[in-house]
């Protein structure tokens, strides 16, 4: 037996449908760069998210309300899967059969538990009581007593783990058998084995239910041999009545025959696993809201599908990215229940991969339910954020973390070293955008627009790295490019600027597409023989509206006619080398008209769009040939915003 996230996981992603009950609406929020999580946990108050980074030997703490990284705590092992109970953080060591018990707030070590056997794969527990369970890559299940901090091997079989959130007395385990296994040994079953269903759809994952006895042991209560095809994760609904497995192949009838099935997430009765009680949309991993009757399915890191955990009816779907990392590593509700947090990759060339903080537009009833559970909430989401419109479930102490999904862990752990350093002082929450500003960036570190001493949005002096993490108003970040350098000089504003060399298309989208009048402003500095072309677009080339450039010592604007080659280039103003200018484009997507002002020029001449976009949502800078350009202080503004 071996770890289950194999090549089969990636093969079936092509089959997992992106389509949902309704066409997905765009959703955006703050994005922070983050390497793949080894595990995660969120505190019971719904504010602090802790993410393990195995290859760095760190725990990263995030304030989900402020949408900021708070601190990084170095640990003396490669941290992997995590579970939180009370003030104790249980962390499995990647590649080792060891669980470390840490202080949840500080990350300081308390105890080290050697389980024996293969590497720890998953951890799960009730947020306030009962044993902490650990599984291995070979389906062993261990029970850890929080009082004695000792681990015991049980008779249970499992890889994925989920604890009943209502009482903590029941453990559900799941196994996705690898390709070379047709039977798995399970104690307490008639015959001692569970037969693996196999047909053209693939091998079926199975779910087992175990109840805890007074001695900490586990007794098999029921089994479901056909839970999913190519399973990714296991979850129990907040009311403890349904158990489900997300998967790449959905649910299919037994190999011997049957009807129904498809790319769905089948639900089974937790009292009697043999009973199938419904189906939800498909996904790679899921999370449940700790207060509201709301679930979310992550679909390949691209789409978030909301659903009702009681009825399993699909709600709205929201598009996060056109393409992303599909691994089921982190999705949860956070910020006192006002946001969804999603990790969908760390590809430096994809500006929409990272750790997303996505706002929920809650109803008044929703906010009242959350305030009853958590106290004062963060400010309400803006009007254009997606509406949730769900009914609150019964109140009480907010539920703790849901069992995270963690990657396989084949490497050994390093030996212990000294205690981690004391945590840093948390940063202040990010300031809201100034009045009249839709989005802005200054390419700065610690001084100027969007600057921060604790979390600088740009790594000044570096190229081929993403920039703009945490900046409000944008959809994603600037992508990494060898042709893009965040420089310390020359600058027009703050302590940084952007320098582009050929050949590069450098694009960033803002969060709110503009369908009417607005202003796009940028400071530019053109070296001798330099130049640039700037496009305001709807998604791509054929969505270009305003189009201007610097060439042959002049700023020029294209008076378009709706075609690829049509239109007339018009000189707007001269451009001297090595001098900063402010270009201000005022455009109206409804009228398909725009004007261009350079410094003190009035920009009275009106130009037509190049094509006919319905809205404008991104800015694109093209540098080619022998050109180069410095850019600074890019601002997308309401039409009446001050200069």
From TrEMBL:
Keywords from the named record: Signal
Comp. bias intervals (Pro residues): 400-435
Region of interest called Disordered, as start-end residue ranges on this chain: 379-473
Superkingdom of origin: Bacteria
Native organism taxonomy: Bacteria, Pseudomonadati, Planctomycetota, Planctomycetia, Gemmatales
Comp. bias (Polar residues): 443-455
Stated name of the protein: Serine/threonine protein kinase
Listed Low complexity bias regions: 386-399
Signal peptide annotation: 1-21
């Amino acid at each position: 037996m071996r770890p289950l996230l194999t090549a089969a996981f990636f093969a079936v992603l092509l089959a997992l449908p992106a389509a949902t009950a309704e066409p997905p609406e765009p959703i955006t929020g703050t994005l922070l760069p983050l390497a793949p999580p080894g595990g995660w946990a969120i505190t019971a108050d719904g504010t602090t998210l802790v993410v393990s980074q195995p290859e760095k030997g760190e725990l990263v703490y995030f304030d989900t309300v402020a949408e900021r990284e708070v601190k990084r705590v170095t640990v003396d092992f490669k941290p992997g899967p995590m579970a939180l109970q009370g003030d104790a953080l249980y962390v499995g060591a990647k590649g080792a059969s060891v669980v470390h018990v840490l202080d949840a707030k500080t990350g300081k070590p308390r105890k080290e538990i050697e389980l024996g056997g293969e590497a720890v794969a998953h951890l799960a527990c009730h947020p306030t009581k009962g044993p902490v369970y650990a599984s291995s890559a070979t389906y062993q299940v261990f029970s850890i007593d929080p009082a004695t901090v000792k681990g015991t091997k049980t008779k249970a079989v499992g890889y994925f783990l989920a604890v009943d959130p209502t009482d903590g007395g029941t453990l559900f385990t799941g196994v996705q058998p690898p390709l070379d296994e047709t039977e798995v040994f399970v104690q307490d079953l008639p015959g001692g084995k569970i037969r693996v269903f196999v047909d053209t759809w693939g091998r079926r994952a199975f779910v087992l239910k175990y109840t805890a006895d007074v001695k900490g042991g586990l007794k098999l209560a029921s089994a479901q041999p056909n839970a999913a095809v190519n399973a990714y994760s296991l979850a129990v609904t907040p009311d403890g009545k349904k158990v489900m497995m997300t998967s790449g192949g959905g649910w299919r009838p037994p190999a011997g025959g049957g009807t129904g099935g498809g790319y769905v997430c089948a639900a089974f009765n937790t009292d009697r696993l043999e009973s199938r009680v419904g189906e939800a949309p498909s996904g790679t991993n899921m999370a449940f809201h700790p207060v509201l009757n709301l679930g979310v399915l992550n679909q390949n890191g691209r789409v978030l599908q909301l659903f009702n955990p009681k009825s399993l009816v699909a709600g709205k779907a929201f598009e996060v990215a056109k393409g992303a990392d599909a691994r089921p590593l982190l999705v949860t509700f956070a910020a006192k229940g006002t946001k969804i947090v999603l990790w969908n990759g760390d590809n430096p060339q994809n500006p929409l991969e990272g750790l997303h903080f996505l706002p929920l537009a809650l109803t008044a009833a929703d906010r009242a339910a959350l305030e009853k559970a958590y106290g004062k909430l963060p400010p309400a989401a803006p009007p254009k954020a997606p509406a949730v419109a769900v009914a609150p479930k019964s109140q009480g102490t907010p539920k703790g973390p849901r069992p995270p999904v963690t990657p396989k862990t084949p490497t050994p752990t390093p030996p212990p070293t000294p205690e981690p350093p004391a945590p840093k002082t948390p940063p202040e929450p990010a300031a809201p955008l100034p009045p009249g500003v839709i989005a802005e960036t200054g390419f700065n570190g610690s001084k100027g627009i969007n600057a921060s001493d604790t979390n600088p949005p740009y790594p000044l002096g570096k190229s081929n790295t993403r920039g703009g993490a945490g900046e409000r108003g944008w959809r994603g970040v600037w992508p990494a490019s060898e042709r893009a350098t965040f420089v310390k000089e020359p600058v027009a504003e703050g302590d940084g600027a952007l320098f582009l060399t050929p050949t590069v298309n450098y694009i960033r989208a803002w969060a709110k597409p503009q369908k009417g009048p607005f202003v796009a402003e940028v400071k530019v500095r053109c070296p001798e023989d330099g130049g640039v072309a700037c496009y305001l677009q709807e998604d791509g080339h054929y969505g270009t509206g305003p189009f201007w450039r610097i060439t042959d010592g002049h700023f020029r604007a294209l008076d378009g006619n709706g075609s690829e080659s049509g239109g007339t280039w018009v000189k707007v103003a001269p451009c001297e080398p090595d001098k900063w200018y402010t270009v201000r484009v005022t455009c109206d997507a409804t009228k398909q008209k725009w004007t261009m002002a350079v410094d003190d020029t009035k920009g009275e001449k009106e130009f037509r769009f190049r094509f006919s976009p319905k809205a404008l949502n991104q800015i694109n800078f093209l540098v080619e040939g022998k050109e180069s350009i410095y850019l600074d202080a890019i601002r997308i503004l309401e039409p009446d915003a001050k200069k």
